[in-house]
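Q: Two folds, back to back.
A: First:
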Amino acid sequence: PEKATEDVNFSDTAALLIVSEASLRDLHPRIDEDVVLERFTPNIVVDGDELSEWDEDFWGEILIGEEEERVVLTSNCFRCTSINIDLEKGVIGEGESGKLLKKLMKDRRVDKGKKWEPIFGRYGFPVFDGNIKVGDDVLISRRNDQRT
């Protein structure tokens, strides 16, 4: 008999997308309203007083929880027009919220590999069989010298 496996369903580029609350807060003044995190579809959100905005651009690996479950972060998430969608209506947002991608274009085109697309978040792959949960501590265990 074949061994049952668990598959990742409905993922874009990687199993995980990690963003920080600090980076999200940096977006708010750009559009004069609070941007909802769901527009960016992360499944791990990191927050803490010591985090500065866009710091996650350089993370190479994080450890999560008491068991220090390892997540390898492989690349930045290049954003497309989907972040302009009003999630309640399913259409392009009205006013400034419908121009979020354009606002990010001004100063978030920072990855040399995709110089015409803004980035927000890091793609990651879990290297563990355990569980993580909301509220777990996150340790940045490896930083990259440049954005990758």
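A: Second:
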Amino acid sequence: MKTSFNFYLIKEHILLVERFNRTLCESLAKVSTNFKQEWDLFILSVLLAYRTLKQNTTKHIPFDLTYGRTATLPISFIMETYPIQPIDKNNFQETLQQRAYTLLSTLERK
């Protein structure tokens, strides 16, 4: 029995992973501008912001697709939640950065 790989699909998956890694790195760089040596402290906040933001490609929120429900987080009791609306591809990084900053600043005050 001969096994064959579809290299086109493998390449597509690699490109998707690379695109996500680039988005993650860019977001971490923007959020941790004042804390260059402590960028790893912001990973969970950036991932949370990414996972709870509606994506342009799927028109869905990754958290909703993964768990089948809307994310209810303790932070929603402390601060107003964001309206769910599609985000322009050009403003995605800025929106993700703003959500991470808001989350961090709210948590620091509490």
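Q: And?
A: The longest helix spans residues 7-31.
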